[in-house]
Specification:
Elements lengths: L2 H9 L1 E4 L7 E13 L2 E12 L7 H7 L11 E6 L9 E6 L2 H5 L7 H15 L2 E6 L3 H4 L2 H11 L5 H7 L10 H10 L4 E4 L3 H9 L4 E5 L10 H10 L15
Parallel strand pairs: 5-6, 5-7, 7-8
Antiparallel strand pairs: 1-2, 2-3, 3-4, 4-6
Length: about 250
């Protein structure tokens, strides 16, 4: 890598120091045009990487990347829109990756709908950020384990029961890294797009003020009725504006 290329990349990387934890490398922004309905919206795209087994020095990090096998692990990213750091009201979404819902459009969950809808909500709000959390598949159990959980759900178990039968907790996700990235961008309170009070609690525990939480319900069908009902009854999700018939047995 020549010196000019190295300088370009070093200027786009910020290393966030972590007391009592691993440093995090934040790279960006990249101009990312996205088609949302009939609109073309440009987001500022950043990715981040936990430096658990990688050097915190930028030059050394760049040298280490070819041998790091990053394609065999997962990295998260964030889409930033508008004047996110300074706007009085910025809307954020912590979105857990869902291979089946986000990519294939599976109707067994509402994840794909929530992803696109929250992006639209952020744009309509004028500023905000969508954090796409790549290590959250299946509430933190991973894609292969999630497929096994789906097999158990086809035998009559609900989402929580299937995860527990596989030896996992109901929800194994951590928001610590995402919150650290959020704090690097913004100090002011945020509006959080979520039906999950645990996300609000995680932000408050980390010292980030949540101005309000905005529920996000939609895309109801016979295929995800039990899934959504379990979220409300067993995982403590706020029901929001979800139609009651969609959440009844």
């Amino acid at each position: 890598m020549n010196k000019n290329i190295q300088k370009i990349l070093k200027d786009k990387i910020e290393v966030l120091q972590q007391e009592g934890g691993h440093d995090i490398a934040l790279a960006g922004p990249v101009q990312l045009p996205v088609r949302l309905g009939e609109q073309e919206i440009t987001f500022q795209w950043y990715t981040w990487l936990s430096l658990k087994d990688l050097p915190s020095d930028k030059e050394e990090l760049l040298k280490a990347l070819p041998e790091a096998d990053l394609a065999f692990s997962q990295q998260s990213s964030v889409l930033v829109y508008g004047d996110f750091s300074s706007a009085d009201d910025a809307m954020i979404r912590f979105h857990s990756i869902c291979h089946t819902g986000d990519i294939f459009g599976s109707m067994r969950c509402d994840c794909g709908y929530q992803l696109r809808k929250s992006m639209n909500m952020i744009v309509e709000n004028g500023s905000g950020a969508l954090f796409y959390l790549a290590d959250h598949e299946g509430r933190g159990i991973g894609l292969f384990s999630k497929s096994l959980a789906y097999i158990l759900q086809e035998e009559g178990l609900d989402t929580v029961e299937a995860n527990e039968q596989l030896g996992f907790e109901d929800d194994q996700r951590s928001y610590n890294e995402a919150i650290r990235i959020l704090q690097a961008f913004r100090k002011k309170p945020v509006s959080l797009i979520t039906n999950n009070p645990k996300k609000v609690h995680s932000l408050n525990e980390a010292g980030m003020s949540v101005h309000r939480s905005v529920p996000l319900w939609g895309d109801f069908s016979e295929h995800n009725r039990k899934y959504l009902q379990t979220k409300v009854e067993k995982s403590g999700h706020m029901q929001g504006t979800a139609p009651k018939p969609a959440l009844q047995r």
